[in-house]
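yo

u said u wanted the structure for the complex thing, so here. seqs first:
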Amino acid sequence: MGGDGGDRLRELRERARGPRKTITTFGPEPYDDLAPVLDRFDADLRHESLPIPEESGYLVVERDGEYLGAVPAAAFDELRDPSGGAPWDATADASAYRELVGLLSGTAFEMDDRSRLVATAREVEDRAWRTGRGSLYATFQSLSAFRAQVPMYEHLAGTTDLSVTVFGEPDWEPPAIDGVAVHRDETGEVTDFWVVAFDGAGEDDAKSALIAAEERPGTYAGVVTYDPTVVDDLTAYLGGLAASTP
Amino acid sequence: MNNGGNTSRLFGALADRDRRIVLYYLREHESASVGTLADLVTGWAEAGPGPDRPVAREDVRVALHHVHLPALDAAGLVEYDSDEGRVTLVPLSAGGEAAVDAALAADTTEAGVDLDALLASAGDPGAEDGG
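structre next:
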């Protein structure tokens, strides 16, 4: 268990939650096959029937009557099966799933699908890669879980001025990567968590973080946030943790 | 209702796409809040049928409130309670239904809207009672 660090991350995850959001689909019939995706987010789901072709439908995300954005039905396939593609993939610009995650920042979610959580984390890594500088922190249960992400992080650090810190229980020795520092989390302080946090290189608009905890084996409850005060506190905590031991 | 002058009013009401979208929605739902209609129209422009076009939802809401809903009300197509921010559809004539159907088909396919064809489908070409 994560001890003090776990309490701190749990508290930050709670702070990251914003007002409840509503997802409204517009189209001839409810998009029932989207429910398994949208149901993972703690938002109100509604359908408004509209006599347009099914492929011309769209969904709108709003919060307290404030319109946040829309995603076209043409992109719903990508919501159903999000790619975990890296930020620099040509298709990343059009990633509907990342767009949805962005619109649903501050909305709690529960996911038992690792590939979908990877795709969710990409929203934060994407912002870091586009900004190209600043500090990015990523926690893994164990460093062996980082193994599959090594090529991604090599490219992420190698094509930017980002300073990347990776945390994990030391069950595997990662290769040395320029721009990537590895923190061997001997105490398991962040073991239960999957955190990706970008400090925005000081720009509030670019600050973002995913904070998820493994509540049951294989099931993560979390939130993506753009709240700069939460991200500041989170990156300060992780920065301090990385500095505390070699 | 005076059907004679309604054709020109219908023409005017249907000339604007945002007003047409409101009618498509209200035919399914009868009444709606201005807020819901603003979401509907903004989402349609940004992610729905037709070309993708960024718009500001607040601009859409203001235009609905000040321009489009009063125009639809004046044309006898809706009743707009601007104090309550609530819009209710007035049942359309058969010609009006046909015109809105034709507009819907045009708005949800590649074809543009042919307003002359709409007028013809309204079944009352050229009628004008001046008021």
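The first strand of chain B starts at residue 31 and ends at 33. Chain B touches chain A through 21 residues (CB under 8 Å).
cya
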